[in-house]
Design goal:
By secondary structure, this protein is of the alpha/beta class. It has 13 helices and 19 strands. It has two domains: 273 residues, Rossmann fold (3-Layer(aba) Sandwich); 174 residues, Response regulator (Rossmann fold), CATH 3.40.50. Helix 13 links the parallel strand 16 and strand 17. Helix 1 packs across helix 10. The termini are far apart.
Length: 481
C-alpha cells in the first residue's frame, strides 16, 4: 500500500509498505522513491529501523524519538560541509516486538542495502540477530537496540535449544549493540524499595516478608520473574522469613475484556499459588506485565479497592499509561532508566521530543534517539573514510560503532547543530565522543552501555523521578545526593 508523500519540517516523508525518510545535504530534499523534484543524493546511505507500531510493546513515543534523531541528523547534514555528498534514507518497519517478524525484516533491510539497523525490544533483537548468524539469511548487518534490556543477549555463555538462537544470544562476532542498559541494573532499586519498607520488608507486621510476582505466561515475562525471585531471595535481610509467590496468567486475546476476578484474588489472598499453602497476606506486589496488560490490571485492581502496594517494572514508564489511566495511575511507582540526562544533551532532546509527542519524555525515548544517532554517526564515519563512500559495508559500519565514542574525542551533543559539527569533524579525521540524551552511551567490549537509573512515582498524572542512581560508575549504582 502506498500513500502520497507529505512534507514534515522540511523532510519528505513517504509510506511505501514501510516508512521512508529521504534527505540530502548536497542537493536538497526529494520524495522517497525518486519521484519528481530535485535529484536524489549522489550517495544514498540507508538505515533500517524496527519499531513497535503494534504488538504488546506498541509505543508511538519511541517511534517519534527514532524519527526525531533522524530529522536532527539530516538537518545537520544539510548545514555541514559534507564533502562526500552523503544522503540518508530511513526505512522503517513495524516488527511488533516479534522474533519471527524481526528475523524476516532484517533480511528485507539487508536486501534493500541497509548498512545498519535500529531495533526495539528483546524478542525483535533476537530475531534480527538470528538472521545475522544464519548463512541462508544474507549478509549480517550491525544492530543498535533501544529497548532490548535482557541480559541473555551479548552473553557469551548463553545457551538455547535452537543453535541459531544461541548464536544470536552469544553474539561472538559482535553485531549487536544497544543504547539501553541491562534490566539487571534496576534490580538494586527494586530490592531497596521492598526491603526498606516496613520492618525490613514486613509491611503488614505478620513476621513474614511476602512478595507476589504477577505476570503473563509469555516466556520473556516468566524468565524475568524467575530471575527476580532468585535475586529477591538472595538479597532478603532475613531469608528465613522471606516468601515469594508467582501468579501467572493468560489474559487472552484482549486483556481489556479479560475477567480479572480470579487473578486479583490470587494476588491479594493468604494462599500461595507457588507453594500451595497458606502463608499470610502479601507485603507488596511486583507487577511484571507489559503495559497492554498492566493498564486493565491496575484499573480493575483500583476499582476493587485493593490497598496492597504495587511495584511496577521498567517497561511501565510510558505516557500511554498516563493517558489510559488518568488520575487512577497516581501513586504507582517503580524503577526505570533515567528519562534523559539533565544536561545540554538531555534538555535539547527533551524539548524537541515533547513538541513532537505532547508529553515529557518517559522511559526509553532518549535511548531510542541515541540508538538512531549512534547508527547514523557510525554509518557516516565508515563511509567518509572511503574514496568511494557508496562502497561502505555493514562490517565497516560495525567497526565504526566501536570508534564513535573516543574518550579523547571532541564531545558531540544532541541536535542538528551538534550533528553538523560531528559530520565535519569526521570528514576531517578528528575523533568524536558522542554524549547522548540518555547518557554517555559508551559501548563496552560486547556492545552494552551503562546509564543512570531512577525510582519514579506517578504524581498528579506525571512521572516524577524521586531518586537517581548513577549506574555509570559501577554495578552498585550509588544514590545521587
Amino acid at each position: 500500500m502506498t500513500y502520497k508523500a507529505m512534507r514534515f519540517r522540511g523532510v519528505s516523508v513517504g509510506f511505501s509498505v514501510g516508512f521512508c525518510l529521504l534527505a540530502s545535504a548536497a542537493v536538497g530534499v526529494g520524495a522517497c522513491g525518486g519521484s519528481s523534484g530535485p535529484a536524489a543524493p549522489t550517495i544514498d546511505l540507508k538505515v533500517g529501523a524496527m519499531v513497535p507500531r503494534t504488538g504488546p510493546n506498541a509505543n508511538s513515543d519511541w517511534i517519534s524519538a527514532v524519527e526525531l534523531a533522524f530529522l536532527h541528523f539530516t538537518n545537520g547534514l544539510k548545514t555541514a560541509k559534507n564533502p562526500k555528498h552523503l544522503g540518508l534514507t530511513l526505512e522503517e518497519r513495524d516488527t511488533a516486538s516479534n522474533e519471527a517478524t524481526a528475523y524476516q525484516t532484517k533480511i528485507d533491510f539487508a536486501a534493500l542495502g541497509a548498512k545498519v539497523i535500529v531495533t526495539e525490544a528483546t524478542a525483535a533483537s533476537i530475531g534480527a540477530n538470528k538472521a545475522n548468524y544464519d548463512p541462508a539469511a544474507g549478509s549480517p548487518v550491525p544492530l543498535v537496540a533501544f529497548t532490548s534490556t535482557s541480559s541473555s543477549l551479548n552473553k557469551p555463555t548463553a545457551t538455547d535449544a535452537d543453535p541459531l538462537r544461541q548464536a544470536a544470544l552469544q553474539d561472538v562476532a559482535n553485531w549487536f549493540f544497544r543504547s539501553c542498559p541491562l534490566s539487571d541494573a534496576l534490580s538494586k532499586i527494586r530490592l531497596s524499595v521492598v526491603f526498606q519498607s516496613g520492618a525490613a520488608g514486613d509491611v503488614n507486621g505478620d513476621g513474614k516478608v511476602k512478595v507476589v510476582f504477577v505476570g503473563t505466561t509469555d516466556p520473556a515475562t516468566m524468565s524475568s520473574i524467575a530471575g527476580d525471585v532468585k535475586a529477591f531471595a538472595a538479597a532478603a535481610p532475613n531469608p528465613t522469613v522471606f516468601v515469594s509467590e508467582q501468579v501467572i496468567f493468560d489474559p487472552g486475546a484482549d486483556p481489556n475484556t479479560f475477567n480479572w476476578s480470579a487473578v486479583l484474588q490470587k494476588m491479594t489472598d493468604t494462599f500461595n499459588e507457588s507453594t500451595q499453602a497458606e502463608d499470610g497476606l502479601p507485603d507488596i506486589i511486583v507487577n511484571k506485565s507489559l503495559p497492554n496488560v498492566a493498564i486493565p490490571l491496575i484499573r480493575t485492581y483500583n476499582q476493587a479497592r485493593h490497598t496492597i502496594a504495587m511495584l511496577q517494572d521498567g517497561s511501565f514508564r510510558r505516557n500511554t499509561i498516563l493517558a489510559a489511566l488518568g488520575s487512577s495511575a497516581d501513586g504507582q511507582q517503580g524503577p526505570s532508566n533515567i528519562a534523559y540526562e539533565p544536561n545540554a544533551s538531555g534538555r535539547t532532546f527533551a524539548s524537541e521530543q515533547q513538541k513532537a509527542t505532547g508529553w515529557a519524555p518517559a522511559a526509553f525515548e532518549s535511548q531510542a534517539y541515541d540508538a538512531m544517532t549512534l547508527a547514523l554517526l557510525a554509518m557516516v564515519k565508515a563511509a567518509s573514510a572511503l574514496d568511494d563512500p557508496a562502497l561502505v559495508t555493514p562490517e565497516q559500519v560495525r567497526q565504526a560503532l566501536e570508534q564513535i565514542n573516543d574518550p579523547a574525542g571532541e564531545i558531540i551533543r544532541t541536535g542538528s547543530t551538534e550533528f553538523a559539527k560531528a559530520v565535519d569533524l569526521i570528514a576531517a579525521g578528528t575523533p568524536i565522543n558522542y554524549e547522548g540524551a540518555s547518557g554517555p552511551v559508551n559501548f563496552d567490549a560486547v556492545g552494552n552501555v551503562l546509564s543512570k537509573a531512577v525510582l519514579w512515582k506517578i504524581q498528579a498524572g506525571k512521572f516524577v523521578e524521586m531518586q537517581v542512581y548513577d549506574c555509570t560508575v559501577g554495578s552498585d549504582c550509588p544514590l545521587v545526593p
